[in-house]
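Reply to dn_fold:

You asked what the input looked like. This is it:
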Amino acid sequence: MILNTRSDWGSVARAFHWILGIAILGMIAFGWWVNHVPARPDRFFWRSIHADIGYVVLLLTVVRLIWRVANPTPELPSDAPRWQRIAAQVSHWLLYLVTILVAMLGWAMSGARTQNYADWFGLFRVPQITSPDRAAEHAYEERHIFFAYVLLALVVLHVAAAVWHHFIRRDRVTMRMVRGGQR
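and this is what came back:
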């Protein structure tokens, strides 16, 4: 099943979920490492790799959102209270919004640097959305890091909800993102 149904996530939505989930967690860990690497000659290289992957995460998130809007969203179990339905919707949209915000702040930071991260894996140059400005670079970087931590908190909340659905409620909410329509 490629497309979503009202009861299950399709294979494309599940692929987006797991690829982006792993990429986002990897990028948060990689970004933390890059910021804690003592100044050395290859630091720009590692930050450039982080930026290159960030552009891919941004693109995949936008494509995922388009896919999400074009497909039905599986419903929560009928006995789920209204507040849980609202919390699920709000938290999912916050995950998308903050992922895009973190990536856009990183992109803005790149353009504000004198030596930017526009060279995408040596294949082509990514157009920059800001101009060199040292003060702006630092402001974008501070916000990029802050919202990366906000994103991490949202991911932890998301995982906690999945664990709760699987082990406490014992419903199919978590498993339908793992296996889809298979029972």
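The first strand starts at residue 119 and ends at 120.
Hope that clears it up.
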